[in-house]
Amino acid sequence: MTALVLWLTLAIAGPEQAPARATVDELTRVRELYALASFEEALVRLDLAGSAIEPGPAGQYRALCLLALGRTREAERVVERLVLDVPSFVIPEDEVPPRVAAMFREARERLLPAAARARYTEAREAWDARQLTQAIRGFRDVQTLLADDEFVATVEGLRDLKLLSRDFLALAEAELERERRPVAPAARREPADPPLTPEPAAVTYSEADADVTPPEEVSRRLPYWNPPAALAAQEFRGRLDVVVDEAGEVAAVTLVAPIHPQFDGPLVEAARRWRFRPATRDGVPVRYRKSFEIVLNRR
Fold first, then answer.
1. Which of 55, 102, 192, 231 lies most in the core, judged by the most C-beta atoms within 10 Å?
2. 76 near 49, Cβ under 8 Å?
3. Is the pLDDT of residue 6 over 60?
4. Are residues 168 and 209 in the same domain?
5. 223: domain range?
6. Is 170 found in the same domain as 111?
7. pLDDT above 70 covers what percent of the chain?
């Protein structure tokens, strides 16, 4: 009898039901909890959702909940992290209280320019040290930080910084591509009888070598200089060294003294295309390091 009762009970109850499948996405649920003033629960939901919610909206609602709970400093840190991690994200001001919108704007104005300039400086140092992979990463970071063109247009100097980092990024990527091109193995040479004497390494001469005739310019075009109106009356000076090889082509470029951030990158690229009649020593073409002082002004 006991077995029969148990069987009837199971039959009436039916098989165990699977939990209902969620019909709303995680962000919608967080929004609902926020609208219901369930701020603590919304924060827990954000933690559990993880990457299921895009970082921009996730940061927005985390800051909103923290502010509603009176945890202002935590909310400010969330906004600061959001600005740096997702610089292209803009909080929709019609969806948040004016206080939050103002906090977000202040954080962007305070953090993005400084972060972009610091990252650009690091990338330039890597470029000057020929650490191309690190330089490329840095210039890309600058482009990411300054992805919002509307914001960039509101801060003096950011547009030039974005353009300059873009130009240096292209230079670094092209240089790295050249370095990575496979070099065909040299054909094996059987030693002559008697063995050939190894050729000495090429010497690079300079103006200090009085017995060398310096190279003569054939083509040396500078990039177009069109400064902003505020800089039009100023003069900028710098120095550039180039190594001219035995064929009169530029084998290396060194920006010894930078001139202006808007001009430096295009100048280096232009210098690679300069052409000369090669320097000579006893009538034989030789490598030569030549220095140029660059002066920019619109007077």
1. 231
2. no
3. no
4. no
5. 204-296
6. yes
7. 83
